[in-house]
Amino acid sequence: VQRDLNVAVAEFTELKQQLERDTLVLSVLKKLQEFDTAIKEYNTALLEKKYVAAAQQLEKARGSLKALESRKGFELKILKALGTELTVQTQNMLYHLGEEWQKLAVWKLPPAKESSSLESAMHSELHLRTVPSKEEDVAGPPVASVLQAFAVLGELHSKLKIFGQLLLKYILKPLISYPSLQPFTEEQSDAFILRFKSEEPNLDHSSPMEVFEKIKLIFEVLHQYLLNVPLEQPVEDKKERGVTLAGLLGDMIWEELSDCLIQNCLVNSIPTNSSKLEQYIEVIKSTEEFEKALKNMQFLKGDTTDLLKYARNVNSHFANKKCQDVIVAARNLMTSEIHNTVQITPDSCVALPRLPDPGAGDHLKTQKTSKLLHKDMVNLENETKLSQYTFSLPTCRISSSVEKLMELAYQTLLEATASTDQCCIQLFYSVRNIFQLFYDVVPTYHKENLQKLPQLAAIHHNNCMYIAHHLLTLGHQFRYRLTNILCDGAATFVDLVPGFRRLGMECFLAQMRVQKGEILERLSSARNFSNMDDEENYCAANKAIRQVLHQLKRLGKVWQDVLPVNVYCKAMGTLLNTALSEIVARIAALEDISAEDADRLYSLCRTMVEEGPQVFTPLPEDDRNKKYQEEVPVYVQKWMMFKELMIILQANLQEIVDQWADGKGPLAAEFSAAEVKSLIRALFQNTERRAAALAKIK
């Protein structure tokens, strides 16, 4: 029995294994049959142009093949052949679908060389086929059949991506970029044609409302004739259920389209002044309507997009744009020519609308109080009053660009008073940035001209002083009109004043040093004013004197009517003083001066004294300059010293002693005892009279 039992168990095990093998073979054969059936049905459907059914059969065949390949330890050589067959049939199917797709959506594009111009956009056309060909007997429109088949095969994304890129490049972006371009539709018996026509634009940029209408028309056409196709055919990958082609295309192109709309349309529509901000509500509404229409056509899904956020955030964009425009305008003014000037007088003021009086609310209280106190009031006011021009800028010439720059600053601050808090702060600091930019840009940009041309250095000096003058009160004028955050002392420009004054002075003083250097260089060719009895030496000294006077006269003309009179007189006085000091120093250093030398030196000095004052011509009217020419001793520190030197050159010993007057005379006021003794020794021979005279000089 035991033996029979063992045999029975062995037989049972063998039969069980055989059954498992047979079951496995049957299941494999069943899958092979399913694969074969699917391929046969696919071929039938493809011949009948039932693309969706054909695609589904291919996917069934692919499922069967995957099931066969997943069985471990059961490899059939036939599987490789089946895989190759499936790939071939899939590519065949895609080829047929591609052919159909090319017939359904036909692009007529301009040559590649002309891809980005208005003319090339005019040549772009899109033809959408609307009616199936007669030989086709397909349920539903041909578009749905082809696109759903693509979806089943997983190739829809790549096809739509290419279509979306063409749509953006040749239709949507040109419509946004060129205001004159208008979409134009034409319906034919079997196709719908989308092309462009050109109209004369009213403005450089289209309004957002116009652009949205054009884009909406394009999407309506696409929705109606191409993309209103639900992908609800039974697909193994259930993720694509309930998705429309419009939604897929929207996901692919919306981000790039909205960026283009923002950069080329909404940016240009941001108002340039706060009075137009209220009108911008229309743009926000049209943006909302545009997005709502796209959501209805299922191009868009979800909540507020970047496009609408941008439109709603108009206050911030207005402030940014305004600040950017202000800085650009300011920089253009700074880099324009300095020498185009306008005259500023104490009566001049920046064209600024009158601001309300900050203390207007206190007027009634003070009126009541003043009535009570009027009877007992004692007049404490000083009878002598300051001139109304005491704190005014003196008459001078400044660059017209700087006057415009100051007006820009005032107008921007005025704009800030009517803006939101955030915008007000941004505009205020933009005005500060204007002046900081001036401080950095102008001295660098005009560096060479400011060094070479004395007139430009003078104008730049005036420009800096003019700006500093306005900065003193600029913050105060707007203090109570700006946002509360700025009212607590932050709204000031006073801290910039010393920098601007220093900037103007440094530039002008650098020019003064250049002029001083030229004067000293010219006088260095006068051969130390020694041996004037030598004709050649005298000619050299005379030439040097003439060159210095010519230089001063030229400067006098160049700075005339440009510098304020007091600055002009100080500058010319300083330069003339440099020349006189150098001449005095050279003559005082001579060890021997003959009678003829003294006469010729006197002659040269007389030329300086006679013609020196004539370089003072601060005003264009000659008769008004006489006053300043008579006041030369006020501006030329060494003038009296120079005249005393001339007296010494012509005087005898007794006259020199009289001029000294025991150290109390006019000569003693200008020269030291050592200098006078040195001159006496050079002018007079060594005699007892000279020794007596020298003894009195102490």
UniProtKB/TrEMBL annotation:
How would you describe this protein's topology in the membrane?
Peripheral membrane protein
Location in or out of the cell: Chromosome, Centromere, Kinetochore; Cytoplasm, Cytoskeleton, Spindle; Endoplasmic reticulum membrane
Domain Centromere/kinetochore protein zw10 middle span(s) in chain numbering: 97-334
Where does the source fall among the domains of life? Eukaryota
Tell me, how does this one assemble? Answer: Interacts with NBAS and KNTC1/ROD; the interactions are mutually exclusive and indicative for its association in two different vesicle tethering complexes. Component of the RZZ complex composed of KNTC1/ROD, ZW10 and ZWILCH. Component of the NRZ complex composed of NBAS, ZW10 and RINT1/TIP20L; NRZ associates with SNAREs STX18, USE1L, BNIP1/SEC20L and SEC22B (the assembly has been described as syntaxin 18 complex). Interacts directly with RINT1/TIP20L bound to BNIP1/SEC20L. Interacts with C19orf25 and ZWINT. Interacts with ZFYVE1.
The organism of origin for this protein: Nipponia nippon
A GO BP annotation:
endoplasmic reticulum to Golgi vesicle-mediated transport
Task: Write down the InterPro entries for this protein, in alphabetical order.
Answer: Zw10/DSL1_C_sf (IPR046362), ZW10_C (IPR048343), ZW10_C_2 (IPR055148), Zw10_middle (IPR048344), Zw10_N (IPR009361)
Family per UniProt?
Belongs to the ZW10 family.
Please state every residue range assigned to the domain named Centromere/kinetochore protein zw10 C-terminal. 391-521
**Entry keyword set:** Acetylation, Cell cycle, Cell division, Centromere, Chromosome, Coiled coil, Cytoplasm, Cytoskeleton, Endoplasmic reticulum, ER-Golgi transport, Kinetochore, Membrane, Mitosis, Phosphoprotein, Protein transport, Transport
ZW10 C-terminal helical domain segment(s): 543-697
Q: Which GO terms describe its cellular component?
A: endoplasmic reticulum membrane; nucleus; RZZ complex; spindle
The segment(s) forming the Centromere/kinetochore protein zw10 N-terminal domain are 1-39
The protein, known as = Centromere/kinetochore protein zw10 homolog
- Taken from the record, one Pfam family name reads ZW10_C2
